[in-house]
Structures are given as structure tokens and as C-alpha cells.
Amino acid sequence: MPSSTTPRSVAHFDLDAFFVSVECLKNPELKGRPLIVGGGERGVVAACSYETRKFGVHSAMPIKLAKRLCPQAMIIGGDMENYSLYSKLVTEIIRSKVPLYEKASIDEFYIDMSGMDKFFGLSKFTFELRQYITKETGLPISYALASNKLVSKVATNEAKPNGRLEIPFGNEKPFLAPLSVSKLPMVGKQTTDLLRQMGVDKVHVLSEIPMEMLSSLFGKNGIELWRRANGIDESPVIPYSEQKSISTESTFHADTIDMTFLGSELVRMTEKIAFELRQQNKMAGCITVKVRYSDFDTVTRQASIPYCASDHVLLQKAKELFTQLYDRRQLVRLLGIRFSSLIPGNYQINLFDDTECMIKLYQSIDHIKRRFGNQLLRRAIGFTDPRKSESHPETPRPALLRPDIFLKR
Question: Is residue 108 among the annotated active site residues?
């Protein structure tokens, strides 16, 4: 581990227009054309090619508006399963080449290369890694090498598409100085507009404002704003592990074969941890369902899924796994569900299948849950009869062994 006085070396790798690039691999004739990946007429843009971005199209924009801005663009429905597959392929390549990396989203990675310069030329190593990723996957990828995550990410964005940049130690502030304040990570539209109202448009102007003044204007965020403008970032590269997970389980007060009850519990638990996923701005790439019978025999079944954090998508897979798992006429003591292979990501809903209305509905539901508690809004099927909860000793009334009772809801 390098000392605090030793300059760090952090590389940021970002796949260029990832969804679009994967589509071009499937159909090379699409390369160089204005493309939009997203839902139908009432959907939103999940991704778009650089040729389309020139017209002002961006992700999360309604498809109708995108078509008005760029009527010549071709719209593709999207295939999250395929994108997840390529993301995992790139992850495996990076895992095999470096000792410490962080998967920051489905298409971007940080690599801590501090100390590796004693054994490798870092410029050569990062260049060869990029070449190898492209050779093995066919995907274009940009990268930057700098002394911290903040500067390397900004530099990668400046290098795109299919480019590379190196910012030597000590050059962080000069590199950032001429850039727009909107290019600093975590500086959103509202903060950008406020800064511009103050006459602050470039990073160098922001960096010259005293920290105390920014703190009085923006609170704690003002201090972080000053640090970013001055190229200061000590945040570590967080080791990525496929074992990261979020889970919940329920042991019933009385063992049961009531399929309606078990179905409602599965819905309730899935909704609960799916909301936690979105709260943490993460997506799951694997789902596991666990059943423990009255004789304490415990069985599990899991499946890899396209990265996701949407209730209805996760629920469908959870129900499929439960149906495959529950294969005996025996009382159930415990039911559990786990999401694993977690990655950071803001694709909180299925942008390919959901309409703009559905997306706004999810956002509204999550807002209400954050404000008033995650139990306030739930699917009707997720409400359990209070007489069957652990706090009530009555034995649940058995029902016919029919998983389809709740699969159809």
C-alpha cells in the first residue's frame, strides 16, 4: 500500500456508447449511423450513438422528443441480457489482468495501479489492456490515467470516443481549469445553473472561490465542490466482488402449504429489497430463492439475470425460481430471497420495456417510500393476512398446492 505522500495512479476505463456498440457488433451495418436504443413510441432513450448526440439527444429523454430532434435516427428495442453478458465479459478480462479494480457501473471501471510502475510501465500497461479488451470483445473503450478517481473520470470523458489521456501528477488543477463546471462529477443541472447565475462557468473560476464562501452557499456540499474544482479526491478504489449481496428471509410462526400466503410473502420480500437496491443506486445480476421445509431440509435455486433493480422484472424471475424449487407436498418453514452480483448503476428501471409513465410511477413510489417508509406502498398481493404473521399463533389455513395462483397476478 503506497504511503499518503506517494502519488497514486488510478485508471478509469469506460466503454464507449456501450449499448449502441453491442448492437453494432450484432449488426455491423449500424456502425456510424444515428441510433437510439430504447422503448417504443411512449418509452424513453436508454442510450444513443455519438452521431445522435450531436442533435441534443440524451439518455432518459422521451423517444418522441428524441425523434423530433433527430428524425433520421434508427430506434432499436435493446437487449439488456446481451449487454449484461458483455459487461461481465469485460469484467472478467480486467479481473484477470489487475490486482485491484472497482466496477463503477455496467460499463465503467476504476483500476488502482499505485505501485505497479515499479514492475510495469503504466502507460504501456493501460494501453495494452485497452487493446486486449477491444480485441477480445470487439467493443471500443476509452480510458484515462491520473492520480485520483475524479480526474481520471473527467479525463476519460474528454478522451471519448475511443481515446485515451494521461494527466501527470501535479497537473490535475491545470487540466480541470478550462473545463465547464458541468463536467465535474456530481455537479448536476441545478448546481450548474446556480453557479452560472453567480458568473461561475469554468472550473478555474470555481477553484478560486474561498472554501468558506462555498460552504456558506452550499453547506457541506460546498466543501466538496471546492475540493473537486481543485482536483482533490482521496476516495479509494473499492474492490469489486461478485459476492456482494442483499437479502431477506422470513421464518413463519407456523409451517404452511398455503400457496397464496407464500406468494404474498415472496412479493413482499422482493419489493422490500428491490427498493433497497434502488436506494443504494445498485442493480443485481443474480437472484436466489431459498425454501426451508418443516423437516429443516433447505433448498435453493439461483439464476443470472440482466442487471436490474425493477420490482416487476425481479418478481417475475423470483416466481419462476420458486415454481421450479417447490416440488414436494410438504409444509414450508422459511422463505428467503437474495440479490447478488451487485453493481452500481442508475438503470433503475427497464428503459426498454417501460413507458415514460411507468418510469415516473416508479420514481413517485420510491419518493413516497423514502419519505414515509417502505411499507406504505405495496402491491396488493404482498399484503399478508395478519392472522398468518409471526406475531399471531394461529396456523395458516392450508390452500391447494397451486403456484399458478400467484404467478398469474
Answer: yes
Largest distance between two CA atoms of the chain: 72
394-406 confidence digits (pLDDT tens): 333 333 333 333 3
pLDDT of residue 38: 85
Catalytic residue among 102, 108, 166, 271: 108
The total domain count for the chain is 3
Whether residue 147 sits in one domain with residue 274: no
User: In this structure, are residues 258 and 397 in contact, taking their beta carbons and an 8 Å threshold?
Assistant: yes
pTM flag (> 0.85): no
Residues 287 and 387 in one domain: yes
Q: How are beta strands 74-76 and 35-38 bridged, if at all?
A: parallel
Alpha-helical regions (H) of 50-201: 50-53, 63-69, 80-97, 122-137, 149-159, 172-176, 189-197
In this structure, what CATH number is given to the domain that contains residue 364? 3.30.1490.100
Q: Bridge partners of 74?
A: 35
215 and 299 co-located in one domain: no
- What are the start-end ranges of the E strands in 226-342? 245-256, 282-293, 298-308, 332-340
Residues 178 and 200 in one domain: yes
| CA pair distance 321, 25, nearest whole angstrom | 32
Give the CATH number of the domain where residue 90 resides.
Answer: 3.30.70.270
Contacts of 5 (CB under 8 A, 6+ apart): none
pLDDT of residue 157: 96
Domain presence at residue 239: no
Helix axes 80-97, 18-26, angle to 10 degrees: 100
Residue 101 vs residues 13, 105, 179, 252: alpha-carbon distances, Å: 10, 12, 27, 41
Pair (344, 284) in one structural domain: yes
Are 326 and 286 in contact, with CB atoms under 8 Å apart? no
CA separation for the pair 339, 274 (Å, rounded): 8
Range of the domain at 43: 7-168
Residues contacting residue 321 through CB under 8 Å, at least 6 positions apart: 287, 288, 289, 301, 302, 303
Could you give the residue ranges of the DSSP H alpha helices within 311-355?
311-325
Q: Residue 355: its pLDDT value, please?
A: 55
pLDDT digits (tens, 9 = 90+) for 254-305: 999 999 999 999 999 998 999 888 888 888 989 999 999 999 999 999 999 8
Query: Which one-letter amino acid corresponds to residue 307?
Result: Y
Residue ranges of the chain with pLDDT lower than 70?
1-5, 40, 119, 241-243, 346-409
What angle, 0 to 180 degrees and rounded to 10, lies between the N-to-C axes of helices 211-218 and 220-229?
A: 140
Burial of 199 (0-12, 13-18, 19+ CB in 10 A): exposed
